[in-house]
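Hi Y.,

Following your request, here is the sequence exactly as I used it, all 327 residues.
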Amino acid sequence: MRTLVCGGAGYIGSNMTALLAAEGHTPVVFDNFSKGHRGAVQDAQVVTGDLGDYDLLVRTLEEQHIEAVMHFAAWIEVGESVEAPLKYYRNNLANTQNLLSAMEAAAIQRFVFSSTAAVYGMPETVPITEAMPKNPINPYGQTKWAAERMCHYQSQTGRLHYAALRYFNACGAGDDGARGEDHRPESHLIPLIIQAAMGRRDDIKIFGTDYETPDGTCIRDYIHIDDLCRAHLLALNKLDTYAEQVYNLGNGQGYSVREVIETVKRVSGKKFKVVETDRRPGDPAVLTSDASKARTELGWTPEKPGLETMVETAWKWHTSHPDGYRD
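Below is the corresponding structure, written out as tokens. Let me know if you'd prefer a different format.
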């Protein structure tokens, strides 16, 4: 299947592009390189462009004979979304509408959408199921939820078959350490801890040590990037069968901040400074997923659920790419 991978030069998009190619599909990367890296794309065909460019999207979809679209080209920083909400509404929502309109014009139905557990906001209970209330508490989560609703209503017209995949915490490096995270600036926990272990950061901070968890620190659900991408491929293959698919993607098993720190120390063999500080507002004690729906309906099972493997592959990538990708 010829698949347009929007944001295909980013962390998740580049890993997805590689998996599509390995499985016999033909990925075409569409990216404006504001966040992505050319070094992450490797041999895939690339169209440089922005999702706000409707004419270029339609032309690309038609000239490249695209049969399906995957969308990873969102802004993802929660704090930034609070400080610059219009930026997030423009890219995450308006540009998604533009992409769907271009798909409609080109008569393309198949769409896989990168969503987020942030659509749930502050859930009252865990683990989180897909049926739980959607109460996003920041513009990032709100724009993703609004985009999901847009997909839902478009699917009701019969002109869209879509899968919305709600991630928890994607991590690790794909293909045994070949493709990793290179966010600038970095905000994800495992890469930040690895930077401290590499001596590229003065310390790692723990925000709150008095939560009602076994060790007092927040617990989060992590999923290896390879497992995440395999779920996308399974969903893509079912788009002709189902007009709507909505799945949580996580391990269902949480790891605390202290557990992640200790795992990085063990994998790296390095010591580094850990600073305990106050809680951040809006951080729930525990966020874990119930991904049983994806397991049942997609036949998906995480193959790399262990934190050790996630950290080992991330450590391998960061130590072999200490300055990130060479764009």
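The chain has twelve helices and 13 strands.

Thanks again,
Q.
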